[in-house]
């Protein structure tokens, strides 16, 4: 069986209780923390920066942190995220003047690097940098907000990305982000994804008063993936 990772997007978490919510969802079996960074410029929303990443580390979160940069320009914030404890740093190629240089910068800062593809962005951005990516993130919604519906054309794009990864022979994660729910995660895995971001599908489902509130949704995801 593929080694599947579940990456809750904290965009949909209760920010007033962020540290506890992240701990709870990890205790329930989530693998990595998906950290959405929006700048009100590249995308029409504003979220969190390195300070919050550092705060989660200081709070004792040791799981990998998957920083999804939806910012333009990208380069100047990368060292700050590396210093704040990011594990992966991914960015949108349209937001960087020099994609190869940005990938190199992320590696130089000691993090794993990835490219993010909007629904209409072609995978050809990968053509000359496959040897420099550790993760390919396909957006299955337009970036900026949680709670949108999965765009079905992404399934074909996943199959194409999976072929490119297999042909490269490299260990590259294929992550999907947007509209991932218990009722489509199996189909998404069959199309080739191995890393699943879910925001509203995890945090939006839980009953606030339930101390083990994330157990059942994570179990449902795992059961779907094991089918
Ligand atoms: C959207 C973000 C996503 C978002 C996913 O720009 O990149 O990570 O939080 O949220 P859901 O799972 O609700 O579509
Ligand atoms: Zn994201």
Automatic annotation (TrEMBL):
<feature type="binding site">
    <location>
        <begin position="144"/>
        <end position="147"/>
    </location>
    <ligand>
        <name>substrate</name>
    </ligand>
</feature>
<keyword id="KW-0413">Isomerase</keyword>
<feature type="binding site">
    <location>
        <position position="68"/>
    </location>
    <ligand>
        <name>substrate</name>
    </ligand>
</feature>
<feature type="binding site">
    <location>
        <position position="179"/>
    </location>
    <ligand>
        <name>substrate</name>
    </ligand>
</feature>
<keyword id="KW-0479">Metal-binding</keyword>
<dbReference type="Pfam" id="PF00834">
    <property type="entry name" value="Ribul_P_3_epim"/>
</dbReference>
<feature type="binding site">
    <location>
        <begin position="199"/>
        <end position="200"/>
    </location>
    <ligand>
        <name>substrate</name>
    </ligand>
</feature>
<dbReference type="InterPro" id="IPR013785">
    <property type="entry name" value="Aldolase_TIM"/>
</dbReference>
<feature type="binding site">
    <location>
        <position position="36"/>
    </location>
    <ligand>
        <name>a divalent metal cation</name>
    </ligand>
</feature>
<dbReference type="GO" id="GO:0004750">
    <property type="term" value="F:D-ribulose-phosphate 3-epimerase activity"/>
</dbReference>
<dbReference type="GO" id="GO:0005737">
    <property type="term" value="C:cytoplasm"/>
</dbReference>
<dbReference type="GO" id="GO:0006098">
    <property type="term" value="P:pentose-phosphate shunt"/>
</dbReference>
<feature type="binding site">
    <location>
        <position position="177"/>
    </location>
    <ligand>
        <name>a divalent metal cation</name>
    </ligand>
</feature>
<dbReference type="GO" id="GO:0019323">
    <property type="term" value="P:pentose catabolic process"/>
</dbReference>
<feature type="active site" description="Proton donor">
    <location>
        <position position="177"/>
    </location>
</feature>
<comment type="function">
    <text>Catalyzes the reversible epimerization of D-ribulose 5-phosphate to D-xylulose 5-phosphate.</text>
</comment>
<comment type="similarity">
    <text>Belongs to the ribulose-phosphate 3-epimerase family.</text>
</comment>
<dbReference type="InterPro" id="IPR011060">
    <property type="entry name" value="RibuloseP-bd_barrel"/>
</dbReference>
<feature type="binding site">
    <location>
        <position position="68"/>
    </location>
    <ligand>
        <name>a divalent metal cation</name>
    </ligand>
</feature>
<keyword id="KW-0170">Cobalt</keyword>
<feature type="binding site">
    <location>
        <begin position="177"/>
        <end position="179"/>
    </location>
    <ligand>
        <name>substrate</name>
    </ligand>
</feature>
<keyword id="KW-0119">Carbohydrate metabolism</keyword>
<feature type="binding site">
    <location>
        <position position="9"/>
    </location>
    <ligand>
        <name>substrate</name>
    </ligand>
</feature>
<feature type="active site" description="Proton acceptor">
    <location>
        <position position="36"/>
    </location>
</feature>
<keyword id="KW-0464">Manganese</keyword>
<keyword id="KW-0862">Zinc</keyword>
<dbReference type="InterPro" id="IPR000056">
    <property type="entry name" value="Ribul_P_3_epim-like"/>
</dbReference>
<feature type="binding site">
    <location>
        <position position="34"/>
    </location>
    <ligand>
        <name>a divalent metal cation</name>
    </ligand>
</feature>
<dbReference type="GO" id="GO:0046872">
    <property type="term" value="F:metal ion binding"/>
</dbReference>
<comment type="pathway">
    <text>Carbohydrate degradation.</text>
</comment>
<protein>
    <recommendedName>
        <fullName>Ribulose-phosphate 3-epimerase</fullName>
        <ecNumber>5.1.3.1</ecNumber>
    </recommendedName>
</protein>
<dbReference type="InterPro" id="IPR026019">
    <property type="entry name" value="Ribul_P_3_epim"/>
</dbReference>
